[in-house]
Hints:
CATH topology: L-fuculose-1-phosphate Aldolase
CATH class: Alpha Beta
Number of domains: 1
Low-confidence stretches: none
Strand order of the largest sheet: 4-3-2-1-5-9-8
Distance between the termini: 47 Å
Amino acid sequence: MTYEQERRTIIDTCLYMQSIGYFLSTWGNVSMRVGDRILLTPSRVCYDTMKPEDIVVIDLEGNKLEGDRNPTSEKEVHRRIYVQRSDVGAIIHAHTEHAMACSALDIPEVPCIVEEMSQMLGGSIPLTKDYVEAIEHVKLGMAVAEVIGTKNGAIIRNHGPVACGRNMDEAVIVAKVVEKSCGIYLSISQRDDIRIIPQNFIDSQRHHFLYTYGRDKT
Length: 218
């Protein structure tokens, strides 16, 4: 069995997401990219019983290379992000309360209202344009890929959030920032005096986080 450490990281992440209420039942999935391979959680396998050999390995074209299980039904969401984003090394698709509430709002995005969004997400959180049934796997993946751009977070309309990171630790933090930001937005969304962070500051804060944060000269 290949990628043993990565398989265990995926399972540990699923268990953690479940413990903090981000995954419910088997609703939620995790992936990692290793070179030109994608490791994915299997479909309809409880996280408490998931074993390393249950993790499915596919290539960037979606062909299954390893595993007896079927990959998550949101496989195309993960795959299409990896194909267009070489900077992404891990993805978490969760089912969290505040982000799911925002998924039902008739808005194109959750605006960038706090600095964490600038640094971790690259700005606002885009929503996919229209509702796509979960059984329409390819259309679902295309919808997310269409709106995510260079952002690290997106929300699937009437469904749930997607969080990306350069590695799994970062993807976990992004998932938390997405949920926290959606909660803040819901609490103030009826106000008419919301101040949104200007794009030039979003760009500078994102650049700082990616390239100079923790490396500043004193």
